[in-house]
């Protein structure tokens, strides 16, 4: 909890634009994947499945819908929020926006792990598009962890500064 508070209250060091653009590209790929699945869901179409089999089993299971809404729509909203947050950071350079985006990747990772568990251990089937979403969520989360670790001032440095005030 101490590290989370530290991340949210302390400024980040200057983040290379290329790293923020990388995060944006990954989020947009996730958005495209989730949007495609959402469109296919509402059209009543199962997308073609290559490399793995089981898209139909996964996409028509009771786990693919929450409160009557396809999980892919929630994923598309998640990736859109991440994309808008990163784009806003790139435009404004306000690190507060970026810190909230980094925090949101934790939730994306948790949900991705849950749905991966459902595919592997409950359904015994895999959806290529869902695995693509797991991959993009994982990349966003790992990159967010690297950014938080590398570009946040160290906790002991902050303690020394606060102690001298």
Order of helices and strands: HHHEEHHHH
Question: How are the strands ordered across the major sheet?
Answer: 1-2
Largest sheet: 2 strands, antiparallel
The outline comes out as elongated
Parts with pLDDT < 50 across at least 5 consecutive residues: 157-165
* Helix content bin: over 70%
Binned strand content: under 5%
Q: How large, in whole angstroms, is the Cα Rg?
A: 18 Å
Global mean pLDDT: 88
Which structural class fits the helix and strand makeup?
Answer: mainly alpha
The N- and C-terminal alpha carbons lie at a distance of 24 Å
- The overall strand count is 2
Describe this protein's structure.
Helices cover 76% and strands 2% of the residues. By secondary structure, the chain is mostly helical. The chain has a two-stranded antiparallel ribbon. A hairpin with a 2-residue loop joins strand 1 (65-66) and strand 2 (69-70). Helix 2 runs antiparallel to helix 6 (128-151).
């Amino acid at each position: 909890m101490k590290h989370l508070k530290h991340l949210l209250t302390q400024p980040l060091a200057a983040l290379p634009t290329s790293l923020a653009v990388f995060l944006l590209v990954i989020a947009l790929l996730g958005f495209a994947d989730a949007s495609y699945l959402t469109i296919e869901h509402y059209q009543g179409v199962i997308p073609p499945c290559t490399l793995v089999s089981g898209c139909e089993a996964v996409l028509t299971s009771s786990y693919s819908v929450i409160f009557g809404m396809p999980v892919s729509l929630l994923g598309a909203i998640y990736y859109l929020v991440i994309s808008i947050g990163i784009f806003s950071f790139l435009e404004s350079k306000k690190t507060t926006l970026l810190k909230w985006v980094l925090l949101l990747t934790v939730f994306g990772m948790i949900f991705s792990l849950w749905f991966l568990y459902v595919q592997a251990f409950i359904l015994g089937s895999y959806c290529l598009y869902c695995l693509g979403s797991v991959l993009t969520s994982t990349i966003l989360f790992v990159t967010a962890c690297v950014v938080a670790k590398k570009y946040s001032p160290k906790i002991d440095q902050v303690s020394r500064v606060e102690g001298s005030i």
